[in-house]
Design goal:
The chain has about 300 residues and is of the alpha/beta class. Helices cover about 40% and strands about 25% of the residues.
């Protein structure tokens, strides 16, 4: 069994008297997308900065790519790429020149740097704009170029800190496709985001950080099942069938619809259908509602999502 790409045990960090991280534990397997969620100021960016060797922790046992970020910062930097919410793109240079600059910083031979730049410009759909100054790029193009620059050194672990903030929905989904392609190539992604739909769509596992602690961790589906309110909605065309189903299953009725509490799992759905079948009760339609990550976030942190807060 391979070692995890990222391993964190007892990570602590304070700024003066303010405790930001109070002994958090995280494990990120290789080739997976791990999302860290939390309210604004919860410590998400601090966590990324510590793992990326940009901030020194107060305590904890950390491994990134098998190396200690404190004792072996150069080895960690060789293994990782970091793309933050503030672009590292030089707007006075062309897209191609930005990539060639990164190749020079990685001490790559000129011919290899040009080859990698051409490959990334093609892969990120930037070839037509390659020789235009980056200051003329749209927000989506700038984010794609920023991520392409991160890939010049061939990192196997990438930290994406709020990578789609400010992008329109189309550009955001384009970034999602690129992230999925990276993972398909075996890259590990550590993602922080304020968009819960983004975490739901992309992440294999999610951790929720609040007041310096990890308050929940699991797959998106596992986290949704932590929150009450899921139900199976059954619609009947016959009032007698509706009454019989309500007596059999419980739940609440509204007009021709019966809502039966459920965790949204396959076993729960199968149980309801089996009981209806044995009683010869046939609904006209059926749908399953499970709480979404907005519900999870509100329940665990007592606050609305950062995305909704910023929209007020």
């Amino acid at each position: 069994m391979s070692s995890p790409a990222i391993s964190v045990t007892g990570l602590r960090k304070s700024f003066a008297d303010h405790v930001v991280l109070d002994g958090i534990d995280l494990t990120v397997p290789e080739g997976r997308i791990f999302a860290l969620l939390g309210p604004n100021g919860a410590g998400k960016t601090t966590t990324v900065h510590i793992l990326a060797t940009l901030t020194r922790p107060d305590g904890g046992d950390l491994r990134v790519g098998g190396h200690d970020p404190v004792a072996e910062p150069d080895a960690v930097r060789t293994a990782i790429g970091v793309t933050g919410q503030f672009s590292a793109v030089d707007e006075l240079l062309t897209g191609r020149e930005n990539l060639l600059l990164m190749a020079d910083l990685h001490h790559l031979p000129r011919s290899e740097g040009r080859r990698i730049a051409d490959d990334l410009l093609t892969r990120f759909d930037l070839l037509d704009a390659a020789d235009k100054v980056a200051g003329s790029y749209s927000g989506g193009m700038t984010r794609r170029l920023d991520l392409a620059m991160t890939l010049v050194g061939g990192p196997r672990i990438i930290f994406l800190d709020e990578p789609t903030v400010g992008l329109d929905p189309r550009s955001r989904r384009g970034m999602w496709d690129i992230i999925r392609e990276l993972v398909a190539d075996g890259v590990t992604i550590f993602l922080t985001t304020q968009y819960l739909e983004e975490a739901d769509q992309l992440a294999h596992r999610i951790a929720v950080l609040d007041h310096g602690h990890i308050v929940a961790e699991g797959t998106p589906e596992q986290l949704k099942r932590l929150v009450p309110g899921g139900h199976i909605r059954l619609t009947f065309g016959d009032e007698e069938q509706l009454r019989s189903a309500a007596e059999l299953l419980g739940g609440t009725t509204t007009d021709s619809t019966l809502a039966v509490p459920s965790d949204g799992g396959v076993a729960s759905l199968r149980d309801v259908l089996d009981r209806l079948g044995r009683a010869r009760i046939e609904p006209e339609s059926l749908s399953v509602h499970t709480p979404d990550l907005d519900d999870v976030f509100l329940t665990l942190t007592g606050r609305t999502t950062p995305e909704k807060e910023s929209a007020r």
